[in-house]
Structures are given as structure tokens and as C-alpha cells.
Amino acid sequence: MDNVLIIGAGAAGSVVAKKCAMNRDVFKTITLASRRLESCKKVQADCVTPIEIAQVDADNVAETVALLKKVKPDLVINMALPYQDLPLMDACLEAGVHYMDTANYEPRDEAKFTYKWQWPYHDKYKAKGLIAVLGCGFDPGVTNIFSAYAQEKLFDEITQIDIIDCNAGNHGKAFATNFNPEINLREVTQRGKYWKNGEWIEIDPLTISAVIDYPDVGPVKSYLIYHEEEESLVENIKGLKQIRFWMTFSDNYIKHLEVLSNVGMTRIDPVMYKGNPVIPMEFLKCLLPEPSSLAEGYTGKTSIGCIVTGTKDGQAKRTIIWNVCDHAQTNKEVGAQAVSYTTGVPPVVGAMMLFKGHWSGKGVFNVEQLPPQPFLDELGKQGLPWHVRDLGPAEQSDLLTVKT
Ligand SMILES: NC(=O)c1ccc[n+]([C@@H]2O[C@H](COP(=O)([O-])OP(=O)(O)OC[C@H]3O[C@@H](n4cnc5c(N)ncnc54)[C@H](OP(=O)(O)O)[C@@H]3O)[C@@H](O)[C@H]2O)c1
């Protein structure tokens, strides 16, 4: 296997294409396809080795199947939007191509994050001898693999996972989102949710917070939100009693979000304007900066990881596993900010795992179901070094005492 097709030439997809082009020993043939050929041309010009480009509307299964038959890739990496997950999975099944993505399917008219649409493809992929690897970005993605690594190597039993995600960067804009604005705002404005003692507990958006001490960044107020990897980790980490996801948002970001929500600009249902239906969130996306345009001048770091609590050899234990990524450094390397970089590098490593035979299987798998060690061995070499450290009893006290 050495032929990869990347679909979606946006902020994160461009990182995937550029990093694949830096690893020609693994990726002999690289094609980048997107809705607009213009987007692909820009990325192609910045790749260090030649790549092919193509135009495709990934919502259209027949069009995608025709492209797959022409390019004959071994793997499709879906870097378009969650709306395209199901049509791309259907196209891969029809053309006999392995599939990978970084975010679970969402219907356009409902901001709902669940694997219930993609997991039922398991038997169809299995019957065709194909693998679909779901959620191979950073979170979901590397955070799931950190959890699998903790389960396999560091703990006898895991009782609690706190996934912690901090962007301590500054892009200098009044308001912008670090990945696709529509998808980002749908994620943040939905109700919060976490899992405890076998139950999902819902909360109003951004109503529980804690100060988390992020490696290389320091203490930052973080909000409990729902994130899709919780759904699969609950299934795949044995003994788990609680899982929560925490993300930092600046006061400025929250102020803008509140105003936009209050005036209805984050609505995803159509509103009639001068006789035409307009979806406020889609219109808002057009006004906001493209995430790929934020890289120049972006300063600061992301610090993302897992705090895992459990036991080893009969002793209580708490461990943090994390990566820190610098916006200016990733801009220098591939012309992208760190959020696009941390999203784009993991699927390249995941594709390497499939092409080198470290990951295999027939059916639909979340990344924590695949061997973590070879992935983590490669991750640092591809630009995302990771670290692990046991925590002392007094560390992260605010996070660990907050009532949930
Ligand atoms: N797991 C993680 O860690 C993580 C983190 C952040 C984001 N993500 C996922 O990554 C996705 C991409 O994020 P991003 O920041 O790169 O967004 P982006 O810059 O908006 O890029 C999305 C790209 O998808 C392409 N696209 C949209 N509809 C298409 C269609 N019907 N057919 C073909 N291409 C289509 C667009 O192509 P054109 O430019 O050609 O119009 C656009 O370039 C997000 O939506 C999110 O789900 C995952």
C-alpha cells in the first residue's frame, strides 16, 4: 500500500498533504481532492514534492466513486467536514478503498455528535475486507491513543480520564475559530455532557469549569464540554467510572459567543430573508476568518493531553500524557497554525500505520482499538513529541475536586 487520496484542502487537509509529501518513502502517490480545485492548487504549490490534485464534491457518492476508480488509492483520508463522512464511507465501500477520518458524522440540521451512524458500517466493511479508522486527529485521535497506551502499559485498571485541551495561542483577530467555524461553533454551543458510573449526565453549555495546570502553559480556566471520543472510550477502556473533556476558551471568545448566540447567529435552522432561506450559522461562517488564514503571526502554544487515574500493582496512580505544539513553529514548517497541525499530523501517522502493516483489521475501528505503541513511536518523529509523567497528590487539585 502506497497510494493515498486526501479529500478536503482546508486548514487541516493542507497539513496532511504537505506532511505526506515529506514522506515519499511511505506515500508514493499522493492526490489531494476538494470541492474547489483552487484550494488544492494553493496546497500543491507549497508541497515539497509533487502531488496530484482533483476536484470532487464529496457529498456526491457517484462522483467520488468515479474519482476513486480513476486514482485507485489504497486509502481515503477524509479531511473535509463531518457532513461528508457517510457519503465518503459509502463511496469507499463501493470502490473497495480503506477509509480514515478525524471527526464523527453530523447531520447538517442537527448538531449531534455520535458514532451511531458510522459504527453500523462495521459489518459492511468487514464483508468487503476493508478497514475504516474513525477519529484519527488529535482529539479525537491522539487522546484516544494516549488512553489506550495508558491501559496497555501504565495501569492495571483505569477509573477516570480527564481529557484536557488548551490553546494558549493568540491569532490577533477580534474573533476567529481555529478550525472550521461552523463545526467549531456547533460543538461549543451544544449542551455539555460527561459520563459517570454508567450514565451520561447533561449540563447547560459552559456551566462547569475548573482551573487546569497545563504543561508548558500553566493554570488556565477550562470548561467541561462534550467531545465525541468520550463515546468510544467508554466502550473501549475497561473499568472506567468517569470521563470528562475540558477545553479552554478566552473571556473574549466567550463574550463573542454569547452575543452571537443571543442574537440568533448560531442557529442552524433556516430563517427567511428577503424571500430566501438563510441558515444564520452558515452565513456567520462566511464572515469569519478561514482557519487556514490564521497561521501568519499566530503566537503561543497548544497543550493537549489526558490525565488518567487508576491503579497499578495495587497502588493508586495518576498520570498525565501530553503534547505541546507551538503555532510559530508549525507555521514555519508547513504554513499552518498549531490546531491545524495537531489535527493534520495524526492521520498521516495513522496512514503510515496502515501502509506499514502496524495497523490492520476488517471493519470499523476507533483508534484506541488499534496498537498504540507503533503510532506513538512515529508521532514524535512526525512533529508531535509526547511526554508522560506521574502526578503528585497535590497536583491538579482544582480539576480533581470540582463537583461533577
Ligand atoms: N480530531 C481533531 O483533532 C480535529 C480537530 C479540528 C478539526 N477536526 C476536523 O477537521 C475538519 C476540517 O477542519 P479544517 O479546519 O481543515 O476546516 P476547513 O479549513 O473549513 O476545511 C474543510 C475543507 O473541506 C472541504 N469541503 C467541504 N465540503 C466539501 C465537499 N462537499 N466536497 C469536498 N470537499 C469539501 C472544503 O473544500 P474547499 O476549500 O475546496 O471548498 C474545505 O477546504 C473539521 O470540520 C473537523 O471536523 C478534527
Describe the secondary-structure layout.
Layout lengths: L2 E5 L3 H11 L7 E6 L2 H10 L5 E4 L5 H11 L3 E4 L6 H11 L2 E4 L20 H7 L2 E4 L7 H13 L2 E11 L13 H9 L2 E5 L2 E5 L5 E6 L3 E8 L3 H8 L5 E7 L2 H12 L8 E3 L2 E3 L1 H8 L13 E12 L2 E12 H8 L3 H19 L6 E4 L5 H8 L6 E5 L6 H5 L3
Parallel strand pairs: 1-2, 1-4, 2-3, 4-5, 5-6, 6-17, 7-12
Antiparallel strand pairs: 7-15, 8-9, 8-12, 10-11, 11-12, 13-14, 15-16, 16-18
Bound molecules: NADP nicotinamide-adenine-dinucleotide phosphate.
Describe this structure in words.
- Helices cover 35% and strands 27% of the residues.
- By secondary structure, the chain is of the alpha/beta class.
- It has 14 helices and 18 strands.
- It has helices at 11-21, 37-46, 61-71, 85-95, 122-128, 142-154, 181-189, 229-236, 251-262, 280-287, 327-334, 338-356, 372-379, 397-401; strands spanning 3-7, 29-34, 52-55, 75-78, 98-101, 131-134, 157-167, 192-196, 199-203, 209-214, 218-225, 242-248, 271-273, 276-278, 301-312, 315-326, 363-366, 386-390.
- The longest helix is centred in the C-terminal third of the chain and has 19 residues, at 338-356.
- It has 2 domains: 3-138 and 340-379, NAD(P)-binding Rossmann-like Domain (Rossmann fold, 3-Layer(aba) Sandwich), CATH 3.40.50; 142-336 and 385-401, Dihydrodipicolinate Reductase, domain 2 (2-Layer Sandwich), CATH 3.30.360.
- The structure holds NADP nicotinamide-adenine-dinucleotide phosphate.
